[in-house]
Write a structure and sequence with these properties.
The complex is a heterotrimer of chains A (320), B (278) and C (412).
Chain A (H helix, E strand, L loop, with lengths): L24 H36 L6 H6 L8 H8 L1 H32 L6 H7 L2 H4 L2 H12 L5 H8 L13 H30 L2 H9 L4 H29 L3 H6 L11 H10 L4 H31 L1
Chain B lengths: L3 H26 L1 H10 L19 H41 L5 H13 L2 H15 L5 H24 L4 H9 L4 H12 L1 H16 L3 H5 L9 H4 L11 H24 L5 H6 L1
Chain C lengths: L1 H23 L18 E6 L6 H15 L4 E6 L5 H10 L6 E5 L3 H6 L18 H6 L1 E2 L2 E2 L1 E2 L2 E2 L3 E5 H7 L7 H11 L5 E4 L6 H13 L10 H15 L12 H9 L3 E6 L4 H6 L4 E4 L17 E4 L6 H14 L2 H11 L2 E2 L5 H7 L4 H8 L12 H16 L5 H7 L4
Parallel strand pairs in C: 1-2, 1-3, 9-10
Antiparallel strand pairs in C: 3-12, 4-5, 6-12, 7-13, 8-10, 8-11
Helix pairs in contact in C: 2-13, 8-9, 8-16, 9-17, 16-17
Chain lengths: 320, 278, 412
C-alpha cells in the first residue's frame, strides 16, 4: 500500500498492524482519532503555508497579471494565452534542454559522489564525526557569498582554478568557465554538484547507519564482501532513503535559481537559461507575472510527472 | 606469523590513513570556503585576491563584522534552533503515521507533500506576507520560526518517513500488547529508535533556517530583526560592496553553527534499530 | 405625527451631506483634496535600497533632519537590498501598506507611475525647474512629474595616469584612439580596457555610451549606428584589449580589475571613487570618446529619485511631498552629492560643486547632458534593455554579427 516499502531485515518481514487482536470498540474509536491527530498539525501547517500559493500561482497563470494588478487588484482572465506565449518563445526550448542537462548532470554527480563519500565515512576512524559535520559548512554560508567566491575562482584570466590547472600543466589556455556559451553550463553544473554533495552525503550516511551490522556479518560468512556486499545487502536496504534523496534532489534542482543568477545571470547569451530562471525573470524583472506563473506551473508539472513515474518504478522494483 | 599487536597496529594505520584521506577530500570540498577566508583577509574589499595567500592580511573585515553583527548572529541562532524544535514536533508524528498507519489516502498525501516542495520560495514568501500582515505576525521572531518550520515540515516528513518505513512493527506491537497506548508507544519506542532520522532532519531544518534569506526579507519591514543573511547587506550596496566584511561575517557566523552541527553528528550512531529487535 | 415625520426628514436632510462628506473624503486619487489635511502627522515611513554603511546612516540623518524641519517627529527609514526593492513595493502595494516616501532608481519611475502607484508631485506644488533635463525626463510620465532626484551619476573613462604616461598614450578622444590606446596598453596581465557586458540591466546601461554617442537610438535598434557601437565592443574584445570575461564582470568587478592593475582603463562611474582613493590609485577621468568629430559624447543618467506613493492618507502624502522637497534643497543636494559621489541635479549648483569638489568636474559637465534611459520609451524601456543586452552578448560570444545581432535578439 505504501510506496517503496522495503524488506529491512533479511529474516523478519514486517507484519501488517491489522493482525493484532482488535481492541475493544470504544478503544478502537479513540485510536482512530489518535491516529488522525498524528497527522493534523502537519496537515494544517502544510495547507496554511502551501495551499494558498499553489492555488494562487495556478490562477495567476491564467490571468493578465501586471504591476497594475498590485495596485488596483484587476487581473483579466486570458485563458491559455500565457502558456502559449511562453512555450512559443524561442528561448523556451533552449531553456528546457538546459534544465534537463542541468538536472541530470547535477543529480548524477551529487548522488554518486555523495554515495561514495557516505560509504567512505561508514567506517570508523578518528575525527569521522567532525569531518562529516564540516562537509556541511558550505550550507552555512549565504548563497550570495558562495557565488561570489565561485565567480572569483572560475574567473577566466586570474581565477585560481585556471591558474592552478595551467601551473599543473593540465591545460594550455585558460578555460572560459563562465564566459563561453559552450562551457558555462558545465561550470554551473559543477558548482551545483558541489552544493548538493553535503545533502546527499548526510542523508545517505544516515541511511547506511540504519542497516544492522548483523546483515553484513551474516553476509560475510557467505562470502559476500566489498562490491558484492554493497550490491546484495547495502543497496536493497537503502532503497527508501535513496529514492527520497533522488526525488527531492530532482525537485530541488529544478528550483535552483540563486546560484545561476549569481554566477552567470542566465548568460552568456542565454547559455545557462533554465525554465525556473525564465520564470523568475518574467515575473520579477519584466513584471509579466502571468507568464512567470505559467512557467513555474510547467515546472511543477514536470516535477510531478517525474515524481509519479519514479514512485511507480521503485514500487515495481520492490515487488520483484 | 602476525601477532595480535601487529594486527592492531595495522588496523590503526588503516584508520589513520582513512582520516588523512578524509581530510584531503574535505580540503577539496571546502576550497571555496578557504577562498572566502582569503577574500575576508583582503584590505581592499574587492573579490579579486591574486594569490593563494593574502599579501597583506588585514583583519579590518573581521573587526567590522564583530562590531556590527553580534545581535544578528543571536537572531539567526534563535530562529534556527526554534525552527528545529517546531519542525520535529510537527513532522515526526506525521512521518510515523504515513509510514506505519494504514490510511487509504497515503499516496495522495505524499503527492501533496511532494508538490509543496515544487513551489518556488518566492511565491510562498509573497503569499505568506499577505497572511502574516493580516494576522499581525510580521516583524517577529516567532513569526519567522513558524514560517521556516512550516517550510521544513514537508521535507522532514518525507525523510523521516523513509527511515521509519524500516521500523519493525513487531516492537511497537510488543509494547501495545503490554498495554501501552498509541502515543505512549510512539514516544517511548519509535522516537528513540528513529533518533538518526530525527537528528538528520533537525540538522537540515537548522541549515534551511540558518541560510534563509527570502522569509527574513519578506516578513520583516522595520529592519529591527535581521538574521545574518540580511545583516550582510550592511556591506553590500546597490553600487558598492565590501566583500571582506561580508566574508568575515559569513565565516564568524558559521563558527557557532558548526559547533552545533558537530555535536549533533556525533549522535548519529550506528545500528539504532538493530539492538532493539533482540 | 406629521410633526415627527417632518422633524425626522429635517434631521436626515442635515445628516445626509455630513455623512456623504465623511465617505467621500477618504483615500482616493483626488489630487490636493483637503480631507484630513489638518491632522498632524507624527511619523512617516521611507523605503529605499541604501542598505550599506555609511550611506544608510547618512541618508537616515538627512531624512530625520528634514522630518524635524517639516514638523514630523519620527521618520522610519527602511532599506532593503537593491534587487529586492521592487518586490517589496509590490507586496506592500497589494496589502495597501506602501511607505509614505519611496526611493526609486530613475529608470523604474515611469513603470511604477504607469501602474498607478505614485502621486504626481505637481499636485503638491512641486516642480523640477532648474534641474538638468535628464532627471526630469526620467521622472515624467504622461506629462506629469512623479519624482525628484537630488543627485545623479553617469559613466566615463577612468585611466591610470602613470600607466598611460609611461606608455606615451593620451586619454583617447575618438574610437580609433580608444582602440589603438587599448591595444598598446595591453601587455602581460594588463588589459588595455575593461567594461561590463553582463546579461542584465547593468550590461545594457554600460552599452549606452557607445550606442548613443554614435547616434544610435533605443527606438530603432536595428540601425547601422547601433551596429557600429556593437562593432566597437566586438573589436576591443577581438583585439585582445578587453578580456573575454567582460560578459561576466559586473561594474564592481571591472573596478576590482582596474584597481588590481589588470586594466589600464575602465568604463565606470563616480561611485567607485572612494574605493579608488582608498587604494591610492592615481587615476584620471575622461569623457567617453566619440566616433566621428561631429558627435558629442552622451552618457546615460544614473541615480535615484524620491517619490510619493499613493497611500490614500492625504495628510501623510502632503507631508511626504514636503519631505521630498526638503531632500532636494540646494543644501541637501550638495551634501548628498559630496557624501555619495554624485552630482547635484540643479544646474545652478554646478559651478559651485566643481569648485568645491574638483575631482568631480568632468562628471558634473557630463551629468548636465546625461540622457535618461526612459526618456523616449517610458515604461517600455525594460523590454528594450533586454534586447540590448541579449544582442550585445550574442556579438561578444561570436554568435551573431553586429549587423543582425539586435534583430536576432528580438528587436522590433
Amino acid at each position: 500500500m505504501s510506496d517503496a516499502e522495503t524488506l529491512t531485515t533479511a529474516t523478519e518481514p514486517t507484519t501488517p498492524s491489522s493482525e493484532i487482536a482488535p481492541a475493544p470498540r470504544r478503544g478502537r474509536r479513540g485510536e482512530e482519532i489518535a491516529k488522525i491527530l498524528f497527522v493534523v498539525p502537519a496537515a494544517l501547517t502544510i495547507i496554511a503555508l502551501f495551499g494558498y500559493p499553489v492555488v494562487k500561482n495556478l490562477v495567476m497563470s491564467f490571468q493578465n497579471y501586471t504591476l497594475r494588478t498590485f495596485i488596483n487588484g484587476e487581473a483579466p482572465w486570458v485563458g491559455l494565452q500565457n502558456y502559449v506565449a511562453v512555450v512559443t518563445d524561442e528561448l523556451f526550448s533552449k531553456a528546457l534542454v538546459n534544465t534537463a542537462l542541468f538536472t541530470i548532470g547535477s543529480i548524477v554527480g551529487q548522488f554518486v559522489i555523495g554515495m561514495l563519500l557516505a560509504l567512505f565515512f561508514h567506517k570508523n576512524f578518528p575525527l569521522n564525526g567532525v569531518l562529516r559535520a564540516l562537509f556541511l559548512l558550505p550550507w552555512l554560508l549565504p548563497l550570495i557569498v558562495g557565488s561570489a567566491a565561485w565567480r572569483a575562482i572560475l574567473e577566466q584570466d586570474s581565477g585560481v582554478l585556471n591558474v592552478t590547472l595551467e601551473k599543473l600543466g593540465i591545460i594550455d589556455a585558460p578555460i572560459p568557465w563562465l564566459t563561453s556559451p559552450d562551457v558555462a553550463l558545465i561550470a554551473i553544473i559543477l558548482v551545483n554538484i558541489w552544493l548538493g554533495i553535503p545533502f546527499n552525503l548526510t542523508l545517505l550516511y544516515s541511511g547506511l547507519q540504519e542497516i544492522p551490522d548483523e546483515l553484513y556479518e551474516a553476509g560475510a560468512l557467505d562470502g559476500a564482501t566489498g562490491w558484492k556486499a554493497f550490491w546484495n545487502i547495502t543497496w536493497p536496504n537503502l532503497q527508501a532513503v535513496v529514492s527520497i534523496v533522488i526525488m527531492l534532489g530532482v525537485i530541488y534542482t529544478l528550483k535552483v535559481l540563486d546560484i545561476i543568477l549569481g554566477l552567470t545571470q542566465g548568460g552568456p547569451a542565454n547559455a545557462t537559461q533554465t525554465i525556473n530562471l525564465m520564470s523568475y525573470q518574467r515575473s520579477f524583472v519584466e513584471f509579466k507575472f502571468g507568464q512567470g506563473a505559467a512557467l513555474s506551473n510547467i515546472l511543477i508539472l514536470i516535477s510531478l510527472v517525474f515524481a509519479i513515474v519514479y514512485l511507480r518504478a521503485t514500487r515495481r522494483q520492490v515487488d520483484e | 606469523m602476525v601477532t595480535h599487536q601487529q594486527r592492531l597496529a595495522a588496523r590503526q594505520t588503516r584508520r589513520g590513513l582513512r582520516t588523512a584521506i578524509a581530510i584531503v577530500l574535505l580540503a577539496l570540498m571546502l576550497f571555496p570556503v578557504y577562498w572566502m577566508l582569503n577574500i575576508s583577509l583582503q584590505a581592499s574589499g574587492g573579490t579579486l585576491p591574486s594569490s593563494f595567500f593574502p599579501p597583506n592580511p588585514s583583519l579590518s573585515g573581521y573587526t567590522t563584522a564583530i562590531h556590527d553583527q553580534g545581535q544578528n548572529l543571536v537572531t539567526s541562532l534563535i530562529i534556527a534552533v526554534g525552527t528545529v524544535v517546531l519542525t520535529l514536533l510537527i513532522a515526526t508524528p506525521c512521518a510515523y503515521a504515513l509510514a506505519q498507519f494504514r490510511f487509504r489516502w497515503i499516496t495522495w498525501a505524499l503527492l501533496a507533500i511532494l508538490i509543496s516542495q515544487m513551489i518556488p520560495g518566492i511565491v510562498i514568501a509573497n503569499a505568506l506576507y499577505t497572511l502574516y500582515e493580516n494576522i499581525g505576525l510580521l516583524n517577529s521572531v516567532p513569526g519567522l520560526i513558524i514560517a521556516n518550520a512550516a517550510h521544513a515540515v514537508p521535507f522532514g516528513i518525507l525523510i523521516m518517513r523513509a527511515f521509519m518505513l524500516g521500523v519493525p512493527t513487531s516492537i511497537v506491537e510488543a509494547a501495545r500488547v503490554d498495554g501501552a497506548g498509541l502515543v505512549r508507544a510512539f514516544l517511548s519506542i519509535v522516537v528513540p529508535i528513529s533518533r538518526n532520522s530525527l537528528i538528520t532532519v533537525g540538522l537540515f531544518a537548522f541549515l534551511f533556517a540558518w541560510s534563509d534569506f527570502i522569509f527574513a526579507l519578506t516578513l520583516t519591514t522595520e529592519g529591527k530583526i535581521t538574521p545574518v543573511t540580511l545583516g550582510i547587506y550592511t556591506y553590500l550596496g546597490a553600487h558598492i560592496s565590501n566583500w571582506s566584511a561580508v566574508m568575515a561575517t559569513a565565516m564568524l557566523a558559521s563558527i557557532p553553527a558548526i559547533i552545533l552541527l558537530v555535536i549533533a553528528q556525533k549522535y548519529i550512531a550506528a545500528g539504532a534499530t538493530g539492538g532493539a529487535v533482540k | 405625527m406629521i410633526k415627527n415625520r417632518l422633524m425626522a426628514a429635517i434631521a436626515m436632510a442635515t445628516l445626509a451631506p455630513l455623512t456623504l462628506a465623511a465617505c467621500g473624503g477618504g483615500g482616493s486619487n483626488e489630487a490636493g483634496s483637503e480631507g484630513s489635511a489638518t491632522q498632524t502627522v507624527s511619523s512617516l515611513t521611507v523605503l529605499d535600497y541604501y542598505t550599506e554603511s555609511p550611506s544608510h546612516s547618512q541618508i537616515g540623518d538627512q531624512l530625520q533632519k528634514c522630518g524635524t524641519s517639516i514638523g514630523v517627529a519620527t521618520v522610519d527609514h527602511q532599506s532593503v537590498p537593491g534587487p529586492t526593492l521592487i518586490q517589496k513595493v509590490l507586496q506592500q502595494a497589494s496589502s495597501k501598506t506602501l511607505p509614505d516616501v519611496l526611493m526609486l532608481d530613475n529608470p523604474d519611475i515611469q513603470q511604477i507611475a504607469e501602474a498607478g502607484a505614485l502621486m504626481p508631485l505637481g499636485d503638491f506644488g512641486l516642480n523640477a525647474d532648474g534641474y538638468a533635463p535628464g532627471p526630469v525626463s526620467a521622472a515624467t510620465f504622461d506629462g506629469q512629474l512623479y519624482g525628484l532626484q537630488p543627485g545623479a551619476n553617469t559613466l566615463a573613462i577612468f585611466y591610470h595616469k602613470d600607466v598611460l604616461a609611461k606608455a606615451g598614450v593620451q586619454p583617447p578622444k575618438t574610437w580609433a584612439e580608444l582602440k589603438t590606446a587599448a591595444k598598446k596598453l595591453t601587455s602581460g596581465k594588463q588589459y588595455g580596457f575593461a567594461f561590463n557586458a553582463t546579461a542584465d540591466y547593468e550590461g545594457a546601461w554600460q552599452f549606452l555610451p557607445p550606442m548613443w554617442t554614435n547616434g544610435g537610438d533605443e527606438t530603432d535598434l536595428k540601425s547601422p549606428q547601433v551596429a557600429g557601437a556593437l562593432q566597437l565592443w566586438k573589436d576591443l574584445v577581438d583585439d585582445g584589449s578587453v578580456s573575454k570575461s567582460a560578459v561576466n564582470w559586473k561594474q564592481a568587478d571591472v573596478n576590482d580589475q582596474f584597481i588590481a592593475g589588470k586594466a589600464a582603463m575602465m568604463l565606470n562611474g563616480p561611485w567607485q571613487i572612494p574605493s579608488l582613493q582608498k587604494a591610492k590609485v592615481n587615476f584620471g577621468v575622461a569623457p567617453f570618446p566619440v566616433n566621428t568629430p561631429d558627435q558629442t559624447s552622451i552618457a546615460p543618467l544614473g541615480g535615484e529619485a524620491w517619490t510619493v506613493p499613493v497611500t490614500g492618507d492625504d495628510a501623510k502624502m502632503a507631508k511626504a511631498a514636503e519631505l521630498v522637497k526638503c531632500m532636494n534643497t540646494d543644501e541637501n543636494q550638495m551634501l548628498r552629492a559630496k557624501q555619495g559621489g554624485l552630482v547635484p541635479t540643479k544646474l545652478a549648483l554646478a559651478e559651485q560643486y566643481k569648485t568645491e569638489v574638483p575631482s568631480m568636474a568632468g562628471f558634473t559637465d557630463a551629468v548636465a547632458n546625461a540622457r535618461a534611459r526612459t526618456g523616449k520609451l517610458g515604461p517600455k524601456w525594460p523590454d528594450t534593455a533586454k534586447v540590448i543586452y541579449t544582442g550585445m552578448q550574442l556579438v561578444l560570444t561570436d554568435q551573431a554579427a553586429p549587423a543582425d545581432a539586435m534583430a536576432k535578439a528580438g528587436a522590433s
